[in-house]
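worker-3 :: picked DENN/MADD domain containing 5A
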Amino acid sequence: RSGTGCGCGRFCSTSCRFADYFVICGLDTDSGLEPDELSGENFEQSPLRRTFKSKVLAHYPDNVEWNPFDQDAVGMLCMPKGLAFRTQVDSREPQFHSFIITREDGSRTYGFALTFFEEVTSKQICSAMQTLYHMHNAEQYDILHTPTSPKGPEDLHRYHSQPRPVLHAAPSISRLQRFNSYDISRDTLYVSKCICLITPMAFPQACRKVLQQLHQAVACPQPPPLPLESYIYNILYEVPLPPSGRSLKFSGVYGPVVCQRPSTFELPLFDFAISEMFNLLGVENVLQLFTCALLEMQILLYSQHYQRLMSVAESITALMFPFQWQHVYVPILPASLLHFLDAPVPYLMGLHSNGQDDRTKLELPQEANLCFVDIDNHFIELPEELPQFPNKLEFIQEISEVLVSFGLSPEGNIPSSDSQTKYRSFRSVDMVSDKRNGNLASPLHSYLLKENETIARLQALVKRTGLEVKEDPSSYKDPRLQCDEEELKMHNSNIHIREVFANRFTQMFADYEVFVIQPSQDKESWFTNRDQMQNFDKASFLSDQPEPYLPFLSRFLETQMFASFIDSKILCHDDEDKEHTLRVFDARVDKIRMLNVRTPTLRTSMYQRCTNIEESGKAQILNFVFNICPSIEMRVTKIDHTALHPHLLDMKIGQGRHEQGFFPRLQSDVLSTGPTSNKWAKRSAPAQWRRRDRQKQHAEHLYLDNDQRESPWYHLCYFKESLVIFPQKYIQEARNLGTTIRQPKLSNLSPSVIAQTNWKFVEGLLKECRNKTKRMLVEKMGREAVELGHGEVSITGVEENTLIASLCDLLERIWSHGLQVKQGKSALWSHLETCGLVFSHQLLRKSDGGGSAMPPLKVSLIQDMRHIQNIGEIKTDVGKARAWVRLSMEKKLLSRHLKQLLSDHELTKKLYKRYAFLRCDDEKEQFLYHLLSFNAVDYFCFTNVFTTIMIPYHVVAVPSKKLGGSMFTANPWVCVSGELAETGVLQVPRNMLEITFECQNLGKLTTVQMGHDNTGLYAKWLVECVMVRNEITGHTYKFPCGRWLGKGVDDGSLERILVGELMTPTTENDERMCRTPPMQQSPGMMRRFVTISPNSKPSKFLIQETTILGEAINGIVKHFHKPEKERGSLTLLLCGEFGLVWALEQVFQHGFKSPRLFKNVFIWDFLGKDCSHSETPSTAISLDENWQTRVRTFCRFMRAINSTSRNIGKDGKFQMLVCLGARDHLLHYWIALLADCPITGQMYEDTALLKDRSLVNSLIRVLQTLQDFNITLEASLVKGVGI
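worker-3 :: tokens ->
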């Protein structure tokens, strides 16, 4: 059509044509044989197995405005391994492969190449090959006949001690001549040549047919009906792209070619066979690869077939709908560009295999976060700590059903012969010992057997009813079909598989719009400050998700593809603004919402199968293949448009001569320029069709596939049209925000360009480090602010762990960038081990201590390494590196350790190339500075992750300074409890009062039980505090006491439960600023401060006591409203400072009558008298039944605590009673009971709180709020009580 409104009709019409270029690559006889040194081939191979430089011999037309021809990139990708030579005894079957050129802005151009062999007619080339063989045979002869000479004393001794080699000259030479020779007089030499189509959109099936028919015309003894120029001219200038939702038929040399394109409400165009990927890898491996791609890991595909690399790469990215891969994407990496594997960024690349080297011989720059896929051998190697895709087993089963319906095995076709043997041995040995490979035995065997049996029974049942059953649905052919049956089956299977995958994201993100954070400012301002803004409420979204989804979703929400998807949503408010993928996805989400209007679905882990296929298909009973989608069926049975047929061109006499076996030199004068007018469109497209679809074609450019929409001509053609392309600018720029370099250039391999590319990598790594540290700090500090009463919580344990894992991945990529020689899978751990010997003798200064009672740990990089090495649960270098990073972060030493690691400049120069990130001094300093900011927050990323490891702890009991423990004669003991475990009773040496022990990780420490056995002459001990330190993390906990332990002193307790908290590193003068003041002090000491006299003003103190209890209850309520994994210590809220026990002590001590001289009266004494009075028969008769039940319950608890074998004293018993009452939701009953007891009137002043009926009712209402929560007590608090 003409470009209305833009004044460039010819430009618009030609930019929509099927192919932009036709290219011929091969041997340039003028330049001769040029070895391809960049391909990395071994020159010890025979000349026929070496690679030589190929060149672009011709391309037509010379150039088009909307897609400039990139000769270097096209030349490398058409023949990635260069020229190949064969003789008449070798296989010379044509090979088809496709490729993609992704520009730095993300736009794509597709290429489709057919490589075949032509006889070499140049005598100079044949003579050169003969000379190379003479030289090669001479070198091999010398190697076979020359024994290795000794180079030193050790070699000399070894040389004389070993038997001399036996020479077999004649057999070796004959073997060389027989199998690896070329004789110009006897052999025919063939060289590879490639013909290629460069297209704006991917139609591999159609392009394959076009190229195969062109090659068939050359190979056929009879000339084609028309010169080849006519067919090439037709495909270049007279065949348009099919519009959205339409099909197109055009003519090849020997038959028609059909291609079709989805409509704007269908999934985007995809013409590769997805079933091929499942056939090569199997369902389980595909799903593992899919997970790695979604989490933006480095993915390396490995195969000796270029088309397999392209097919797997394109298929896995197509299944990501509605998300799009945002990073480096090179499905076929030319041999000359292997240095791109050093890129410290996420990538998806395909590496060609020669079919001889196995995985162990392949040295890759970095493997810590690498997903390696050996396509030919049905094998995938996964990175560590890969989360499982949600509902993995159900998802596998649904995909398998689709594959079985199309006659495909869910496990794929396992390679045969040697590869199959290797695969079997791998499965039988390695898979059992290494679960990370993702190649575990399939759970589908029993399912498929059952499914086949069910189908057989259904077949038998239908036959008995007299109905006809078609055993093979593919045997039926619709005569109206305009394409091959296999091609139709491919399209059909693609739709079904893609619908199943799309359904998973539709279900998982059905309510994603609710959590999109819409900007309050205009788009220009939003884009300017994009780095500082959050576009999605991740914490709220994750809080709504089922628990099994969180490990995957928390990491997926951090990816660039998800951020770009949300950016597109923000920038496109209206349907007409939306990208095609977003528009289709939102339509599916809306459909789910409509179905769930009556019964809104709860977020559960229940698997919901795909229903789009069944709804759109035609119901056919017992059809083994899913029904054909009507839109596909219509497009392939009724062709919407037929292009112009090829025709004779205005060629000179003698041009276009046919010569069998040789692709002719085409006539550039007729192929360089197209028609001067757009006649093909007017002549071939019916006027009615053009009028009917003018508006549709005008609008479809908004909903083109991403590949097409991002091409340059899109912006140029419709610049002046009344289309909304304003958001496109921001969408593209927003995508580029997260990645400094999206795609390396495949052309111009000059040193300056390579250096510039590496500099972009360095800048990108620094920017990523800055963004990650900022994100982690904001999230972490935001959570700590909540604990202080400010803001809202915005981070979960899963999300925090995800951010730290992402940081570990970044460090691995930084340490892998520019590495000279890789020594292990983890470059960071390898560097640490290398530096271990250098730093092991150095004594580093001490860190700030957690308290003067315990000497501080030394700050030692080597000691932290040894701690990690001693953890037997960590088996791999990658795991050790990540554990070391977590430990360093928890100790707030990450920046300091890495700075010390990089302080040996000579070693750094030896290990890394000049362009490496770690050798860029300014960037390295900024990087360390960013990591230093982590010291501002507390992380427990080591303690909370490695929960089963053995950790040494050091305990010190600190006696009172005034009354030292020198006279103490009893034997003390301690029992340390944490969030994860408890130690049991540990005896402490009496003369040392400290002990070091090793036990399983206790987690964050919560309580210490300490006491003594009351032996000796002076069994009384005044303890100031107990200090406990984790000897690996260095965390020191202080458990204040300030009480006596002994009979006849204080409350007579022989053991106490101490509640503590983590000490912050402080100086001696600033010790008062410690955030962990004494948690539990003597009730006698407390009474002297809080007990009031009768003459005091009561109202002020009454309000104070009720407020104290309200704050304690409020702390518990807040605890339970946090996510379960983010709750702190409930023991601290119950028994710590300002906790529930302390608050109730204030309530009971208020107005308590002063005890008689020289006699201490405790709250427990008052409770005991109340219990005795309540159990008297006269009191019981006067109470109603409910009141009697509460009295009996209270007395039962009192008796149980009094009868315990523990010597916890009266205050300890009161604490236990409060904890049990809170657990069983009885405290408000007991307060009411005690307030009405006559004993209260005897032991309290008239102004006491317990005598004020209105305040007592207020206390009861406050305590009743605890009934909403299930309080679980730590075992140490209720030990010895069987209630």
